[in-house]
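[job 0412] stage=fold_complex status=start
inputs:
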Amino acid sequence: MFRLSPMFFICFVGLSILTAFGIHSFTSSGSGSKSFASTDPLNQDFEGARSSTSLTIGSVDSKNFEFEDESQCSDARKVYERSFARNIPSLFRDDRVRSFSDFPRACMTFILNNSMGSGNSSSASLAVCSSEKSGAKRNGSKACLTKTYVNTLYNYFGDVFDCMGVPQKEYLPKIFNESGFQMAAFGRKQEAGLGYLLSIAVKDANNDHSFEKFKEKILSDAADKESCRNISAQVKNLAPLDPGPAGKCGLMVSPSNPLLNLFYVGVKYWKDRGYIEDALAQMKIIERMSRLGLDEDSYSREQLYQILNTIGFNAGPVTAVTLLHGYLKKVESQGRKLTLQDFNFEEPDLGSLENRKAWEGGFAYYLRVNQAPGTKTYGIILKERAQELNQVFKEGVCVPNSYLAL
Amino acid sequence: MRPQFIFGTLVVGIFFFSHALMGKKDNYTSQLSVRQQVDSEIDNLKKNLSQSHPLLEKWKFLAKSESQIETLRKKSPLQIDKDEFYMDQLALSLKRIPRDKDFKTENCESYQTSILAQFDPQSEKQSEPISQTLGILEILCK
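[job 0412] stage=fold_complex status=done
writing structure:
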């Protein structure tokens, strides 16, 4: 009779399990599915989405803060300068004793000098508009960076944002990355002007009489707020724009701009804020973060809101909250605690295994893998832009101290 | 029965049992099927809404589909990130369609604008869940 020794039986069982494990691992690795931690297939996308900059930080030339002399600029570059001189009150064109901007004018001059190329050459990212209602054509020129141009932008920006209660420094990395404070900025998706406004943002701001409601608010606040008082006479005459291609120049040409474009940015800010707050409540985000160990004593809800608003510029405000909702589900399923480090958008030195592990477990990396629609690395790119500003200026001067961090 | 046969059966059995246990960790097949079931529910909803029912009936169909999707997701394990995101966006954007007395066909364009502004402002290549929701809105607005 054939008999099996117990040891022989154990060896066979062990061998079977090992073989099954080997085959399982082999088939899983060949399935092509991307795990949360996989990086290689995504690197290309990441590099491609990163916008290039020729800026050399550390040896910042004083030219980066200088104005241009009008006589050095071609006629095409003097369009705004001439329009401002004719149509914009001196209250905006001249140096002011009291500015409502909460960052120095040098931040704006630096951004203007370091984006959208330089000199008299034309760019496909800048539009040419003959009037408010003309169709926008590409290959426009960068505005001549005279003191008048910079003052006008700086004073309107401060007045509109202060009057409407929009955080100013939160917008500088976005503007640095997109319009570069060029009033004729014209993106690939027809994003228009200073605020790089998409058609849908203009359409939504015109919806539900929002445009008129915000106008009325500014006019009524003018009694108590100097910044509102400064713009109230011109705000009275603002009218909603056609959000389609025919209305693009209306977001770029002077004298209705820069006021109209900045006003739309303000309306969009408050509409998006409402969308985000509703979505946070609907998905019970604050309570879930608290259950995961991050209660409101350890972070500011306002800061969380600003992170979502920034991601929402690109992905959509509710989509930004859905992505956070998805990230929290992942953390919940891992059975781990949530920490402030989960919301770090600054890519660390990935040479260290510990750094890489922490980075790949965070919200910024989750977005890099899962964000759709929009640019997967949008938050990371804006953080880099903020760091560029922070290296030139002292941290907190142009960008809030805790930009894209909890 | 020959011992070799018993032993062979045992080895094969253990092999399949072990493989099945390990396979449980990645529910790739079942993950896809949850999303497919959601899509199938949306297809049925579109069919039902397209047939000529009074608006009141249409709200019932919409609510029923939303509830079925919610129940299906509750009893299913967590899916891969991409599918979870798809189903979250779909469920959330559907909820943005005004119901009953709040729904007015003359405001359909503004409902569409609001959904795009919240979920897909770039709408260059419309995202799948938002495209599904806008498809349903379009039927309701006819």
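[job 0412] summary: Helices of chain B lie at 3-23, 28-50, 55-75, 81-95, 108-119, 128-141.
[job 0412] exit 0
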